[in-house]
Amino acid sequence: MTNIQSVSTGLMNTDMLISIVFALGFNLLLALPAIYCYFKHKNPFDVKIVGFIYSLYFIILAAINIARFSYFASTTLNPDSRSWVFSMVIVLCAFYGAYLGIESLARFSSFAFILLIIAVVAALLCNYENYQEINLYPVIMNDTKSIFDNTVYIISSSSEILVLLCLQKKTNGNAVKPYVWSVVASFFTIFLLVLFVNAVMGDAASFQAFPLYTLYEFAKIGIFERLDALHISFWIFAIFIKAVLLIYCASISVKKGKNSTKCIICSVLTLILALIFSQMTQIGNQSVLVVAVVYIILCVIIPLLTLMFKKRNSGDELIEKF
């Protein structure tokens, strides 16, 4: 829902659907070490230096997402505004949400989930008459490298594996089953939306900076001219939830210090990085090799090393025996 065309490579066509399917499979495959860590009660976040590294990564992800929305708001919603204004407002709200904690965020996310369902269903139903199957052909137009690069970007833009490791102790019951279903549901939703983007706009989708936003501009219900307000409203909720979650995870990844102090520090660092990223022409578009290596190290290598060398906490062993 919050995709920016500049982070993908090649043309925006059905090749992207192939990348999404590959990304789903690899995402679940790469999550296996983290899932085994969960079942073995071995968490890399318990190591102070590792938790600090993950904290920095959460801050970077939060800054990239905030910068993308600020870029969208300052170029599309209100071209006369400044992107740094949006970044400051989002970070301020995100700090307050992170300070309240995960339970408050979960309650608000339930409301946002309902809005998401409404927004997605409305986009699909209201664009059904604009759906042209001929626009989906030819199926493959990009080269293999572009498909691979898009797959890597989709995978590395996610933070689900690290969030699973970070928040597993705050979850009642089995955390793996809802994790898997949520990942599958999210990729399936993205697949449907991108499918309609290509079928409705055809080759013109490649020239849209925000293709999903344009899809909502095509949607109409009766006297309503456009439904882009649905996309805008959900993106506002989405960026708030993502920013709060990532800042909250960044703060609890650091063991020492008061919760309020850590939230303030993480929020300030996020704002500084968001302001820097906002000045870049292509926000979050780094070398695919660098992105892939960093993601593999944090989400796969470190959990594997944790499985092999880390001992379980005595408290976890007592709970399991009990």
Summarize the structure.
With 322 residues, the chain is an all-alpha fold. Helix content is 71%, strand content 0%. The mean pLDDT is 86.
Quick tags:
single chain, mainly alpha, 13 helices, 322 residues, 0% strand
Write the layout of secondary structure elements.
Layout: H1 15-30, H2 32-39, H3 48-77, H4 83-100, H5 102-126, H6 144-156, H7 160-167, H8 176-201, H9 211-218, H10 228-253, H11 259-278, H12 288-309, H13 314-321
Helix pairs in contact: 1-6, 1-8, 2-7, 2-12, 3-4, 3-10, 3-11, 4-10, 4-11, 5-10, 6-12, 8-9, 9-10, 10-11
Strand content: under 5%
Helix content: over 70%
Q: Which regions contain 5 or more consecutive residues with pLDDT less than 50?
A: none
Number of helices: 13
| Overall form | globular
Radius of gyration: 20 Å
Distance between the termini: 44 Å
Assign the structural class, choosing from mainly alpha, mainly beta, alpha/beta, alpha+beta, or little secondary structure.
mainly alpha
Strand/helix succession: HHHHHHHHHHHHH
| Mean pLDDT over the residues | 86
Strand tally: 0
Main sheet record? none
